[in-house]
Amino acid sequence: MKRIHVTITGRVQGVAFRAATREAAIALNLTGWVKNLRDGRVEAIFEGEDDQMELIQHWCKHGPPLARVTGVDLSEEDYTGEFREFTVLYG
To answer: Which fold has domain 2-88?
Structure first.
């Protein structure tokens, strides 16, 4: 099991990025969260099987059709198993 912390830069707010990220994570059986940052980036934590993490990393580099991703900062963290589902955080 693996955990990654991702920050995505570009045209990623106002294009349904969070909702699409949630759908992609659920389809890959991942848990965690995604949220908008005040500076226009999107931040997410994903936990799950190693092979599924590679797929979500690739997905984050493109996002939904209206997004224009210009950068993805990714770091691996210790897996915690703290999440039961994948959620969108607001505020």
So the answer is: Alpha-Beta Plaits (3.30.70)
Active site residues: 18, 36
Domain extents in the chain: 2-88
pTM over 0.85: yes
Taking CA 82 as the corner, what is the angle to CA 76 and CA 84, rounded to the nearest 5 degrees?
115
Whether 46 contacts 33, CB under 8 Å: no
Please check whether residue 15 is in contact with residue 21, taking contact to mean a CB–CB distance below 8 angstroms.
no
Q: What pLDDT digit, counting tens, does each position of 48-74 carry? A: 999 999 999 999 999 999 999 999 999
Q: Which of 23, 36, 30 is nearest to 3 (CA)?
A: 30
Distance CA 10, CA 18 (A): 14
Measuring CA to CA, which residue among 62, 58, 56, 64 is closest to residue 19? 64
Rounded Cα–Cα distance for residues 49 and 80 (Å): 13
